[in-house]
Amino acid sequence: MKPMDEKMLHELVSAVVKRISFEDVVKDGGFSPAFEKVDDAVEISVKAQRKWQFEYSLDKKKLIIDSLKADLLPQVEEFSSLALKDTGMGNLKDKIMKNRLAIEKTPGPEFIRTSCTTGDEGLVLEEHAPFGVIASITPSTNPTASVINNTICMLSAGNSVVFAPHPGAAESSIDMVQRVHDSLISHGAPEGIITVLSRISMKNVGALMSHPAVRLVSATGGPGVVNAALSSGKPAVGAGPGNPPVVVDETAHVEQAGKDIVAGCSFDNNLPCTSEKALIVVNCVADQLKRKMLEEGAFELKDPAKIEALKEAALNEKRTDPNKKFVGKDAVWILEKIGIKAPGNVRLILVECELDDPIIQVEMLMPVLGMVRVPDFDAALEAAIKTEHGFRHSALIHSTNVDHMSVMAKVMETTMFTKNGPSFSTLGFGGECPTAFTIATTTGQGPTTPLSFCRLRRCNLHGSFRIV
Q1: d(Cα 158, Cα 147) in Å, to the nearest integer?
Q2: pTM value?
Q3: Cβ 418 vs Cβ 407: under 8 Å
Q4: Quick check: 134 and 265 in contact, CB under 8 A?
């Protein structure tokens, strides 16, 4: 056997290195995007953003982001499982669907277009430019999907991101940032293009939002964190609260409506802010709708004592907010807590109640759906307005009456309005739209895209450059 000289040894080592996955190298001591100190995270993010903006072509950025999507798809079950284990909320099947949606349908750099106008006075060019460093506050309800969705949107616009995850989803959020960062730099992005705070506290989040190098704050979560973002003195993208009502009128395709409502309301145990939270149905079709919903996996709770026990367990003492221990739990688990053993195929708890009942008026964030009967569409619309609380977040209708659909869309003024489909169709599941996991109702950007994280810049060439 021929002795191994230095050149042969070098070639062998190189071949072995190529066969080791990038993820393994990082785990063995490579760069970590997690930082305890806000200043450290922002400092490297500033440097990375300047490189990303000025040294990377649009084609290169798109190639890196497309490669990120390809890298994440084979891992989706793994990090979906971690999100479920970390938060104890939702269910694995739907989390996998949500993460796949975030990977496959979040728009990239191709979404950004330049406009040009010419006339007798010359030429005007308008382009969408990055803000710079973005502080992204992410929720416990969609920890991994939010990191994926926000990374793709924000980097596509030319920004870098410092993530501040919800403390109830810290492990899965930090793990997701690491996975995304590993992929990005393995395809040529600068180190630190996304970072994450590993020490999570309101003090650190406040320091991040007020840091002079942070140019935009994006917050998804409860009213407290959204209000803090709006008070930061920075441009903000704020996803406020919602309590989406779904109306079913007398002209609806009732069988399809029943199927869609159960599917939408039970999706990931009702964690999405766009999910059906209150059912308002015209009385003449209510029984038919209920029968279909029961066939699709709804469980009707009728016993007044059990209904009271449900409210006692699933709401806080004042009955103004959900009990956090029940948020995102499945219907069978909730029923067991009030002494009812239900079949494993139960997906949703249905409760007939009055309009002022807290099951209707509170955003439950669990598969518990209050149902209110009304005499006609006008009464249904009035009830929907009261239920939605003026958040202007999301609402739904099942109807074949064009006037009813049009009037409700105008009157509700919600950012998301779904007609004749499950709520998740407006997020891109079976709907002709890009996906978003930050629904910026409070600040008006709506379902976010790369354009939501750009600022418009205008360049005017006066009196020149028109060729006609």
Answers
A1: 16
A2: 0.90
A3: no
A4: no
* Domain definitions of the chain by residue range: 21-240+448-456, 245-421
Q: Please identify every stretch of the chain with a pLDDT value under 50, giving residue numbers as ranges.
A: 1-29
The pLDDT value recorded for residue 430 is 85
**Size of the chain in residues:** 468
Q: Assess contact for 210 and 233: CB atoms under 8 A.
A: yes
Q: How many other CB atoms are there within 10 angstroms of residue 237's CB atom?
A: 26
Sheet strands (E) in 221-290: 236-239, 245-248, 278-282
Write the DSSP string, 352-416.
E--TTSHHHHS---SSEEEEEEESSHHHHHHHHHHHHTT---EEEEE-S-HHHHHHHHHHH--SE
What pLDDT is recorded for position 225? 85
Give me 6's structure tokens.
């230095």
Cβ neighbours of residue 58 closer than 8 Å, sequence gap 6 or more: 109
The reported pLDDT for the residue numbered 404 is: 98
If one counts every other C-beta atom within 10 angstroms of the C-beta of residue 330, the result is 22
Cα-based distances in Å from 277 to 47, 265, 269: 44, 7, 11
Fold of 21-240+448-456: Aldehyde Dehydrogenase; Chain A, domain 1 (3.40.605)
Give the pLDDT of residue 31: 86
Give the pLDDT confidence score for residue 464 in this predicted structure.
84
Q: Are 119 and 466 in contact (CB under 8 A)?
A: yes
- State the DSSP code for 116: E
Is 159 buried (19+), middle (13-18) or exposed (0-12) by CB count in 10 A? buried
Residue 467 is predicted with a pLDDT of 78
Tell me whether the CATH fold assigned to 21-240+448-456 matches the one assigned to 245-421.
no
CATH of domain 245-421: 3.40.309.10
